[in-house]
Design brief:
With about 375 residues, this protein is mainly alpha-helical. The chain has a domain at about 130-360: MetI-like fold, CATH 1.10.3720.10. About 70% of the residues lie in helices and about 0% in strands. The protein is built from 16 helices and 2 strands. The chain has helices at about 20, 40-65, 70-75, 85-90, 100-115, 130-165, 170-180, 185-200, 220-255, 260-265, 270-280, 285-295, 300-305, 315-325, 325-355, 355-360; strands spanning about 120, 125. The protein has a two-stranded antiparallel ribbon with strand order 1-2. Helix 2 (about 40-65) packs antiparallel against helix 15 (about 325-355), helix 6 runs parallel beside helix 15 and helix 15 crosses helix 16 (about 355-360). The chain starts with 18 loop residues before the first helix and ends with a helix.
């Protein structure tokens, strides 16, 4: 009876992927599938184009379902306007037309494709694009920066706290969660009372000092930073708890996975296991939430702008709604819609790169 020689693994039978690497979304399972398939991109493009069409269609019909119009609201505030001037305003805004709703809808798309958003009666018949372009940088500069800062601190802090579960660092979770439950209106007023009125560290409100002419000079930029520091800190404090709690909970779930145990058993450095495997998988749900928060930066700042008397798109939308300024309302809604869609597209791309299973499954 002859002995059977052991079969050595051939290149065809040798495992091509490490067990730890295959068990995590942090690495690419198959080298040949490193690119995002065209089918994945095509499906996403079709979905977002349909979403954009639906949002813009709702944007057209929603203001027209409201009672009254911008001219009626304007006449209620200005009694000395003659009937001829009122009719001229209606003709300018297209409110005197006998066109059907379908023809108005087609005209709306024609103007939209040419970049013409109409004029704002609330702002002296100025073009809507000009009105929004002046308010948008203030909102993005303040609330956008605050959202990015709170996301970064909350995600990194939550990952580290989840990794060191059971330590004294867990005390940060209830503290930040409690601060996030306080209504922002009260948090902003308390911050103004303490740091602006009593300590006089920061101005009470506004984006810059009274009498200061905006310009790209050190004095104006310094005033913008000084006036924006307190609202930025209040936004970060109010939103930090959600990011930190969400990341910490996801870390606790990921740390129980088998590939984390195998990675630690293989003697990998804790730093690589934390950031290369655990945190990179736990951050996936955070990315989608971050995309949504970026999208709603544009319209979700009304309370902050009212508390700190800060110029921005949120207050612009509130004033346009009260005045029934259809053109301005539609312009702001368009900016909000585009920001949400772009943020979600970027989140999908980030998902596809961080999680190969997403693009492989949908391909």
């Amino acid at each position: 009876m002859t002995a059977v020689e052991p079969q050595l693994p051939t290149p065809e039978t040798r495992p091509a992927v490490d067990a730890v690497e295959a068990g995590t979304t942090a690495t690419q399972v198959v080298a040949g599938h490193s690119r995002i398939p065209w089918r994945f991109l095509g499906g996403r493009a079709a979905f977002y184009l349909f979403t954009l069409w639906a949002a813009l269609t709702i944007n057209f019909f929603l203001p027209r379902m409201m009672k009254g119009d911008a001219v009626s609201q304007y006449l209620s505030r200005n009694r000395n306007v003659s009937p001829e001037a009122a009719e001229a305003l209606r003709a300018l805004l297209g409110l005197d037309t006998d066109k059907s709703l379908w023809q108005q809808y087609l005209d709306y798309w024609g103007l939209l494709l040419r970049g013409d958003l109409g004029v704002s009666l609330l702002h002296g018949l100025r073009p809507v694009t000009e009105v929004i372009s002046q308010a948008l940088p203030w909102t993005i500069g303040l609330v956008g920066l605050a959202t990015i800062v709170s996301f970064a601190i909350g995600t990194i802090g939550g990952a580290f706290i989840g990794w060191r579960r059971g330590s004294k660092l867990d005390a940060f979770i209830p503290i930040t969660t409690f601060l996030s439950t306080i209504p922002y209106f009260w948090l902003g007023l308390v911050a103004i009372a303490v740091f602006s009125v009593n300590l006089r560290w920061f101005p009470i409100g506004k984006a810059y000092g009274v009498g200061m002419a905006p310009g790209w000079n050190l004095e104006f930029i310094g005033q913008v930073i000084h006036h924006g520091t307190l609202p930025l800190l209040t936004i970060v404090i109010a939103s930090l708890g959600g990011w930190m709690l969400g990341m910490r909970n996801m870390m606790l779930t990921v740390l129980d996975e088998d590939y984390i145990t195998v990675a630690q058993a293989k003697g990998m450095p804790n730093r690589r296991v934390l950031w290369g495997y655990a945190a990179r998988n736990a951050v996936l749900p955070q990315i989608q939430s971050f995309a949504l928060s970026i999208g709603f930066i544009v319209g979700g700042t009304i309370v902050m702008e009212m508390v700190f008397s800060y110029p921005g798109v949120g207050k612009l939308l509130l004033d346009a709604t009260n005045a029934k300024d259809y053109a301005l309302m539609q312009g702001v809604f368009l900016v909000i819609t585009l920001s949400v869609l772009v943020a979600n597209i970027l989140a999908d791309i980030a998902y596809a790169f961080l999680d190969p299973r997403t693009r492989q499954t949908e391909a």
